[in-house]
Amino acid sequence: MALQSRLAELEAELLTLNARPSEPGEQVQYGKRAGDHIAQVTDQLTRARAAEQVEMLVEQVRAALLRIDEGAYGLCEVCGTPISEGRLAALPWATRCIGCAGTAGGAHPAGR
Ligand SMILES: [Zn+2]
Questions:
Q1: Mean of per-residue pLDDT scores for the chain
Q2: Is a pLDDT exceeding 80 seen at residue 40?
Q3: Residue 41: pLDDT over 70
Q4: Residue 111: its pLDDT value, please?
Q5: 89 FRET partner, CA 20 to 30 A, in 16, 61, 62, 112?
């Protein structure tokens, strides 16, 4: 099942993103190479943000798997109409039809 392997992938990615780098020279030395420090902070922010996004995806994929169990997979959770095949192919964990997703005003997953 594609969704399950996707979930495993995402969970592995999340672990990587959440792992704290434990290099010996990690302490920041102020005044010496400020550029490095900034790059490090930026990197941490990027990772935190990426981890957040992956976490959201993990939840969406889990929700989709639950919906498969319930037999509600592929139906819009808002209006109950079947989600188009094209949309499900692009976004297997979609829980809303294009119309409802458009008005939700939130998630715009990448890769589309
Ligand atoms: Zn809908």
A1: 83
A2: yes
A3: yes
A4: 45
A5: 16
The total of other beta-carbon atoms located within 10 Å of residue 96's CB is 20
State the distance from the centre of ligand 1 to the C-alpha of 36, rounded, in angstroms.
48
Tell me, in angstroms, the distance from the centre of ligand 1 to residue 112's CA: 19
- How close is the Cα of 28 to the center of ligand 1, in Å? 50
Longest dimension (CA), the chain: 61
Single out the residue of 18, 22, 19, 87 nearest to residue 53, CA to CA: 18
Mean of the pLDDT values across residues 22-47? Answer: 71
Whole-number Å distance, alpha carbon 90 to ligand 1 midpoint, is 17
